[in-house]
Amino acid sequence: MRKAFICALALLMTAGILALAFFEKNAAQAQQQRAGGKKEFSSKSKDFAEGTATPSAECGECHQAIYREYVFGFGSDNIRKRSAYKDPKQKLRSIPARLLTAGSAHSIAGNDLPPGTEGKSCNTCHNPESFDLPDLDEPEIEPPKARPQGKESFGITCAGCHLTPDGRIRGPCRAEAPHETVEEPNMKTAAMCARCHLEGKRVVGKRVQTFLEWRDDFHKPGLGSQQCQDCHMPGTLRRLTENEDVPIRAVARHLWTDGRYPQRLSGALSLVVEAEKESTSALNFHVINIGAGHSVPTGSNRRAIFLKAEVVDPKQTVVAMREWMFAPWYDDRPDDKSFLEEDKKRPDSAAAIQADAQGPHETIIRAGEERILTWDPRLKPGEYEVRTSLIFDLNRYNDPKFRGDQRTIFKTSLAYRVR
Ligand code: HEC
Ligand code: HEC
Ligand code: HEC
Ligand code: HEC
Ligand code: HEC
């Protein structure tokens, strides 16, 4: 009994001393902060004198996990081989480069431009100078300025998104760092993506309208509360840097999952096939945008989704087939062969001709939209099965027989009878 009492007393005293030490430490920290004292870091950061041309590997020395996502797609399901990121000053030995996954599109945005674009407008989005974040409601959102020639070709670096025009690093965390930081709550909103994922004014159906498709079709009408980051930068809990004693925070993975990520694509569309009446062979195909916060397919006019339907009889012979293509228009009007002559006079003739040569097609499926396509294969009475699939194509202009850049995202079939 007496022994137990002494033990309890000893425990209480230890707890008291620990509590005292804790309060003293906190008081000292508070005093340091009141006196404007800075948190001590074991490593020093450079001043990023090269601005947005600062190699991302420099940031990656401290922010290793984020760098690994950005440059190697670590944590994604993008296992297509793409041109590897070549950073002239890359010197990170601690990060394994022999990985299954391929890097994010942002990390290669400077290597993706064809020759002859030096100093041209392309570099505004692909090799940007520091920019301010716009208001979400701004009627006209300008692209960033291009980096001066000679500093191009680094692509969209870490500094490209994080460096403010006055030379500080913006972030959403209110963190103190070995570099100057500024709190920017809008980093968690579509404002961060708006300047580049938008070309010109809204034209429903046109290419690179993603931000406006999100704002006007999805966000404003209240179809969902997600910002771009919520779908394209999945979160995790971790420290922002590996070599400092900093708190664990909610971090957005720097992956920007796109059409090369099966998980991203598979949730975009749904397809329902319906044979309404037995008196005819007419079919309805409902293509429904259930998963994207913008039109599908969005962005580059190279993208397309094909809906393929074939009807087979009981002997498995294909008796009818049909195909539709959903794709962004190249210009402010539907792609059309009748413009081919006019296109020859354009400065961008090659791109315009390529698009118009494919002729008219279905427009892209807007956020929340259900597109109904009807087709009557005019079949004789009998038993049939209609087999359908949705196929995503990264580049609709290459040889249609080349399947390496295609992915089936939905497959379904329906047995039906025509009387
Ligand atoms: C400085 C301009 C810029 C900003 C800011 C920007 N992007 Fe991008 N983004 C691009 C460019 C350019 C590409 C294409 C790179 C390439 O493939 O060469 C791209 C590619 C992508 C892709 C892949 C698209 C594809 O077709 O492969 C996704 C997804 C994406 N961005 C999402 C986002 C999100 C989400 C944000 C905001 C958090 C954002 N981007 C901010 C310029 C930008
Ligand atoms: C010498 C190491 C080091 C280097 C180099 C470095 N950082 Fe940091 N950074 C830190 C530390 C430490 C923090 C604070 C972490 C915390 O408190 O969670 C931080 C915080 C941040 C934050 C969060 C700021 C906030 O308040 O949300 C961002 C964004 C960031 N860094 C971006 C960058 C970029 C971009 C570069 C390269 C241009 C870079 N960092 C280079 C160490 C570094
Ligand atoms: C295309 C723009 C873009 C690029 C490029 C980019 N970031 Fe970020 N970064 C963001 C956005 C957006 C957030 C805020 C995401 C959120 O919290 O919702 C962010 C957040 C962060 C944070 C704070 C943690 C968090 O997730 O909120 C750090 C640290 C950071 N980035 C470092 C880096 C580093 C290092 C690189 C280069 C390897 C880099 N970023 C490249 C857009 C970018
Ligand atoms: C509700 C989830 C969701 C939201 C919010 C969202 N996206 Fe997407 N995004 C998707 C899905 C699903 C796809 C795949 C289908 C497609 O390519 O259209 C996609 C595709 C893309 C692509 C094309 C990728 C490619 O390879 O062709 C880009 C670029 C893109 N999103 C950017 C953005 C931007 C920028 C925002 C915010 C303005 C945003 N997304 C908001 C779900 C979302
Ligand atoms: C307003 C910003 C902006 C400008 C200006 C711009 N791009 Fe892009 N570019 C993008 C975005 C965003 C993407 C990602 C495609 C998407 O939205 O899916 C992209 C993607 C690309 C791709 C990759 C397409 C693919 O299939 O993955 C190439 C190549 C490209 N752009 C070339 C160019 C060229 C050449 C120019 C100049 C004539 C140019 N870009 C001007 C924003 C821009």
Structure description:
Helix content is 22%, strand content 18%. It has 2 domains: 43-261, no CATH class; 267-327 and 362-418, Immunoglobulin-like (Sandwich), CATH 2.60.40.2550. With 419 residues, it is of the alpha+beta class. It has helices at residues 2-34, 56-60, 64-72, 123-126, 158-162, 191-194, 210-219, 228-232, 262-266, 340-343, 349-356; strands at 169-171, 181-183, 235-238, 249-252, 269-274, 283-289, 304-312, 318-326, 370-375, 382-393, 406-418. The strands form 4 sheets. A 4-stranded antiparallel beta sheet has the order 8-7-10-11. A 3-stranded antiparallel beta sheet has the order 5-6-9, with no helix packed on it. The N and C termini lie far apart (93 Å). It binds heme C (5 copies). One heme C binds next to helix 2, helix 3, helix 5 and strand 4.
Taking the alpha carbons of the first and last residues, their distance comes to: 93 Å
Overall geometric form: elongated
Rg computed from alpha carbons, rounded to a whole number of angstroms:
28 Å
Instruction: Spell out the helices and strands N to C.
Output: HHHHHEEHHHEEHEEEEHHEEE
Unreliable spans: 4-36
Average pLDDT, to the nearest integer?
Answer: 87
Give the neighbour order of strands across the main sheet. 8-7-10-11
Strand content: 15-25%
Tally of alpha and pi helices: 11
Our count of domains comes out at 2
Fraction of residues in helix: 10-25%
